[in-house]
Design a protein that fits this description.
This protein has 15 helices and 12 strands. Helix 4 runs parallel beside helix 11. Helix 8 links the parallel strand 5 and strand 6. With 398 residues, it is α/β, with parallel strands linked by helices. The strands form 3 sheets. A 7-stranded mixed beta sheet has the order 2-8-7-6-5-3-4, with helices on both faces. Strands 9-12-11 form a 3-stranded antiparallel beta sheet. The protein has a two-stranded parallel ribbon with strand order 1-10. Helices cover 46% and strands 14% of the residues. It folds into 2 domains: 135 residues, Aspartate Aminotransferase, domain 1; 239 residues, Aspartate Aminotransferase, domain 2 (3-Layer(aba) Sandwich), CATH 3.40.640.
């Protein structure tokens, strides 16, 4: 069957190949008695959501409207709760009618935004490495993609000052996010201030993807809502997936300039309806009565981070300590480079020999080549057991 050239540009990529290998390992495990697959490649939390949030969803499921289609107007109670949360979280007052948009996951928002703002050939900027939907959304919009290369030597700081005037004249959209996936660095508020200032001066929409806002282990996470000018040229995406462990429920929202949100809403109007009112009831409960929940789970992630780093160091793999919860960003070890392995080869070998799945960093862009991402989505004892399982293979190769 003939498919679109647009789909060809999206490609299949590292993630699909990684998923294929995981499925192949599961099948082999059934027949050969291999160790069970331990999937540390996805940032899908193993922690349960707050009990009161689940109870709010259960209760609302019995309401007659819970199974009906939900148009934008019906999301008003949710948007009002977002406005209260925003005032409490940032001390920023927003208009729930004009400055808030419900989303079916923040990834949906970042992928649809370029379709609402860019014509074919328009220029958008992303970071390299970056979350795949940032590039994917621009490819779907037939945009010309520029990227800012991040590096460990510069602490993964985006050098917006390196953009030439000729580049700024062409840019229509800058899309990025801190705390940063995949490098697990929290980032600094000054980086967002610099980007937003560029946006205001050059009439560029600044889109900040912020699903990890409340998962900073070291320092305060930056936010676009703290920057001057976001009401004119900014939009920020937030999610309940990570901090409230509601990933599968697909509950998120955007806060931003009215004209930007209106454009995004028009695209969403022909693509999807919103989530069930029952799920929105859970989101309202989370933002309102479980406001402090994210702070309660940070200790769990800190313990997982510290114990896993220690176990890896004892094995001989020195990993930079991440300032953001949920991930380790792991450099390819010297012995693997000496064998001619890249990050995808190492991930494939590790999976085949030990049953432990990591994410090759090159799946996030060329700037992630030579790195692997490990998600801290199992109990600390299981993570230490994973390292113990790795060690036999590591010792045989290093």
């Amino acid at each position: 069957m003939r498919t679109s050239k647009r789909l060809d540009r999206l490609g299949k990529g590292v993630f699909q190949r990684n998923d294929f290998r995981k499925n192949a390992y599961r099948l082999a495990n059934k027949n050969n008695g291999l160790p069970p697959l331990l999937d540390l490649s996805l940032g899908s939390s193993d922690l349960l959501p707050p009990e009161n949030v689940l109870e709010a969803i259960k209760k609302a499921l019995n309401e007659p409207g819970s199974s009906a289609y939900c148009l934008h107007a019906a999301t008003r109670p949710f948007r009002e709760s977002v406005a209260v949360w925003c005032q409490r979280r940032f001390g920023v007052s927003i208009d729930p009618e004009r400055e808030v948009q419900f989303l079916v996951g923040s990834q949906e928002g970042t992928a649809h935004l370029p379709l609402s703002l860019l014509d074919p050939g328009d220029v958008g900027l992303i970071l390299n490495p970056s979350y795949p939907s940032h590039r994917g959304g621009m490819l779907l919009a037939d945009a010309q993609i520029e990227s800012l290369l991040l590096s460990a030597e510069k602490d993964w700081r985006p050098d917006f000052g390196s953009l030439q005037l000729s580049q700024l004249d062409q840019l229509r959209l800058i899309l990025f996010g801190f705390p940063h996936n995949p490098t697990a660095q929290v980032g600094r508020q000054s980086w967002l201030d610099e980007a937003m200032s560029l946006g205001v001066r050059n009439q560029i929409v600044i889109a900040h993807d912020n699903p990890y806002l409340d998962l900073s282990l070291d320092g305060d996470a930056p936010a676009l809502l703290r920057c001057e000018g976001w009401r004119e040229w900014g939009i920020e995406f937030f999610s309940l997936s990570k901090a409230w462990s509601l990933g599968g429920f697909r509950l998120a929202f955007a806060i931003g300039a009215e004209n930007v949100l209106t454009a995004l809403q028009r695209v969403k109007g022909v693509v999807d309806f919103n989530q069930s009112l029952a799920l929105q009831a859970g989101a309202i409960e989370a933002l309102t009565n479980s406001f402090g929940w994210p702070a309660q789970i940070l200790g769990t992630y800190r313990n997982r981070r510290d114990r896993t780093l220690k176990a890896l160091a004892l094995m001989g793999w020195q990993i930079p300590s991440p300032s953001m919860a949920m991930y380790l960003w792991m450099p390819l070890p010297g012995w693997a480079k000496a064998r001619g392995w890249n990050d995808e080869v190492m991930a494939a070998e590790l999976l085949e020999q030990t049953g432990i799945a990591l994410t090759p960093g090159s799946g996030f862009g060329s700037g992630g080549a030579g790195w692997l991402r490990l998600a801290l989505v199992h109990q600390a004892d299981d993570l230490e057991a994973a390292v113990a399982r790795m060690k036999v293979w590591w010792d045989a190769h290093s």
